[in-house]
Amino acid sequence: MKVLITGGTTFVSKYTAEYFAEKGNDVTVLNRGSRNQVCDVRLICCDRTKLGDTLNGEYFDVILDITAYTEQHIQALLDSGVTFRDYIFISSSAVYPETNPQPFSEEQLCGHNSIWGDYGLNKLKAEQYLTKRVPQAYILRPPYFYGIYENLYREAFVFDCAMQDREFCIPQNGEMKLQFFNVSDLCRFIEILLENHPSYRIFNVGNAETVTVKEWAEMCYKAVGKDVRFVSVEKAIPQRDYFCFHDYQYVLDVSRQKALMPDTVPLMQGLQEEYNWYKNNTDSVYFRKPYIEFINNSLRRSK
């Protein structure tokens, strides 16, 4: 296939570009060239909002739009003169209001989510614009991505705590649930969509199973080869000061995905793979939050 991937240099888009290139596809990435590119891809170095005639006359079997965050991002690409057979947009579960009944299903009304704010609203507007312009496009709504090339300070934060033999601070009793999706499963599901072209156009994607914060941290420590000692933190202390997820529990109904792709990577296996990559690539996590500094300077002092 001729594949156009927006991004291609960080986490999800980087993994996706590498995945499809290694499968022998003709992969083109569209980004600003600010970071190293993966091997065996063609680079179109451009800001996606300032394409001009860069893509005019180009054809792709599929556009994998991983870096669109607004309606304007979608519009600029569709107005560029590019033509394509399939379009797959990676949206977000942030489009579901937190007041919806859970698990969130694709048929539910979407709208403002007070936790995610403008991010979720902008993703929703991008979805709506794409659907209007390209009714046959596929829209994927993931929970939390994880895996190789993760550049956010999530699993890496827990890995760091484990490698330093630190105790791990959890919100209250650690029973808040989390739902994940491995980037490799995303790529496998994209392949299934392109092969089968199902009639549904919107899919929640993710592991069918959720885990508690406590279970997730235990798995991260186990990936490092360590046992975890937990410290419970009272609700009065803002969770995002010392922990890498919001105080927000939600679950997606992934029945549509499961009907097409029954199995996903076991979370323990995926975390082990991520740690094996991370321990040799610690500098690849760009967005490090000062959780450990806060714990050292504020939580321990308050004990």
End-to-end distance: 59 Å
**What integer is the average pLDDT?**
96
By CATH, the architecture of the largest domain is named: 3-Layer(aba) Sandwich
Task: Please name the fourth-level CATH homologous superfamily of the largest domain.
Answer: NAD(P)-binding Rossmann-like Domain
Large-scale geometry: globular
- The share of residues in extended strands comes to 15-25%
CATH class of the largest domain: Alpha Beta
Q: What is the string of SSEs from the N terminus onward?
A: EHEEEHEHEEHEEEHEEHEHHH
Helix fraction, binned, reads 25-40%
Largest sheet: 7 strands, parallel
Q: Kindly give the count of domains.
A: 2
**Category from helices, strands and their pairing:** alpha/beta
Q: Return the CATH topology of the largest domain.
A: Rossmann fold
Tell me the strand order in the biggest sheet.
Answer: 3-2-1-4-5-6-11
**Number of distinct beta strands:** 13
Spans where pLDDT lies below 50 across 5 or more residues: none
Total of helices: 9
From the structure above, extract its key features.
UDP-galactose 4-epimerase, domain 1; 303 residues; 7-stranded parallel beta sheet; alpha/beta; 2 domains; 13 strands
Can you describe what's shown?
The longest helix has 16 residues, at 118-133. With 303 residues, the protein is of the alpha/beta class. The model has no long low-confidence stretch (mean pLDDT 96). The strands form 4 sheets. The chain has a 7-stranded parallel sheet. It has a two-stranded parallel sheet with strand order 7-10. Strands 8-13 form a two-stranded parallel sheet. The protein is built from 9 helices and 13 strands. 33% of the residues lie in helices and 18% in strands. It has helices at residues 11-22, 71-78, 118-133, 155-163, 183-196, 213-224, 255-260, 267-278, 291-302, and strands at residues 2-6, 26-31, 42-45, 59-65, 83-90, 138-141, 144-146, 168-171, 177-178, 180-182, 202-204, 211-212, 230-233. It folds into 2 domains: 2-146 and 182-204, NAD(P)-binding Rossmann-like Domain (Rossmann fold); 155-178 and 208-250 and 266-302, UDP-galactose 4-epimerase, domain 1 (Alpha-Beta Complex). Helix 3 links the parallel strand 5 (83-90) and strand 6 (138-141). The termini are far apart. Helix 1 packs across helix 5 (183-196), helix 4 (155-163) packs across helix 6 and helix 6 packs across helix 8.
